[in-house]
Amino acid sequence: MITVGDCLEVMRTMDAESVDSIVTDPPYGLGFMGKAWDHAVPGVPFWQEMLRVAKPGAFLAAFCGTRTDHRMKCAIEDAGWEIRDTIMWVYGSGFPKSHNGPWGGTALKPAWEPITLARKPLIGTVAANFERYGTGALNIDACRIVHETINGGNLADNPHLRGSKLRAAPVATSFGREGDETPLTSQLGRWPANLIHDGSDEVLAAFPNAPGQQRDTGPQFARNRGACYGEYAEVPLHAARGDSGSAARFFYCAKADRADRNDGCDGLPLRESGMVSNTSGQHMTRRDGGAPAPDANNHPTVKPTDLMRWLCRLVTPAGGLVLDPFAGSGSTGRGAIAEGFRFQGIELDPEYAAIAAARIRAMQPGLSFGAAA
Predict the structure, then answer these.
(1) What is this structure's pTM?
(2) What pLDDT, in 10s, does the model give residues 35-54?
(3) What is the helix (H) or strand (E) element at residue 186, kind and residue range?
(4) Rounded CA gap, 198 and 210, in Å?
(5) 247 or 53: whose pLDDT is higher?
(6) Mean pLDDT within 69-92
(7) Which residue, 201, 202, 189, 209, is CA-closest to 251?
(8) Gap between the Cα atoms of 67 and 83, Å rounded
(9) All domains of the chain, ordered by start, with CATH?
(10) Under DSSP, is residue 22 helix (H, G, I), strand (E, B) or coil?
(11) Beta strand pairing status for 2-4 and 145-146?
(12) What is the pLDDT of residue 331?
């Protein structure tokens, strides 16, 4: 479940084509808090070894910082992965660590993080690859975005939706054609987008309030007369969905709070945590300039469990094995286990590995953790 050691060495002991997905938050190469592990982004050999252990068609979701994302993407692509997309995680709670003076400042406020979405090359077609390996397609229906007014639903009782107004729809997976918004599938929610936001007032204010802008496919058709010569084929007329809200078409996930960070860590010693960013650490500092109190989970870049659940669900087939070569404090593992997937994490720091084991075990008591137990 968790192996302590250098991830490159550990992955070399793993079987080829044994992993269904990789969801990871690797070092960003920012020298964050003087940590030795953050001196550079992982180079091509790391992503090559991930490619070897991944099944054909397996997806990779990897976080990075905005300053170094280009280097990580190039390393991933040079290793043989196909870059499929970049997901933006937008948030409103970052503060710039800037040197200010009469001439201005030296940094912008951090407000988003990129997540590279890549795929190992397929064997044949998507259908053939999926038939053989169970990989190659995204779990669209399992990650659709449900608004609280869709289906007449008060969705607060659903564990996937707890604590938020807009969350992914917890429904069975089906691999349909993109844009196949039939009345049946549209009731499951909106097609997942390559943008995630934290639901903060600051972020919501950036989106116009446009109730009912997104539409369902209706039974009527009409001729489309465009700016080009001639007539196009018939296209469907649409009826408004009837939902509301400024960010109803996007997945909503706030940053990790204290309860999420320390879940399962009651028996661990308190450690000096220094500056805690909850994200990339890029230009992040406390508004008051002070240091946080000692904490059981002193990892500086904890990702929220709900975000990792959504990502694991997006890229992993049912019952699949999720690999995180940079396990940190275990947020990917928490997300994978909560979604019913198997998980293999690798972490260089024994203290972080112990935190990860405690946090993941809180999701499912009794789990075996191998070298981190």
Answers:
(1) 0.78
(2) 554 568 999 999 999 999 99
(3) helix 183-186
(4) 19
(5) 53
(6) 95
(7) 189
(8) 18
(9) 2-100+109-137+257-372 (3.40.50.150), 139-251 (no CATH)
(10) strand
(11) unpaired
(12) 95
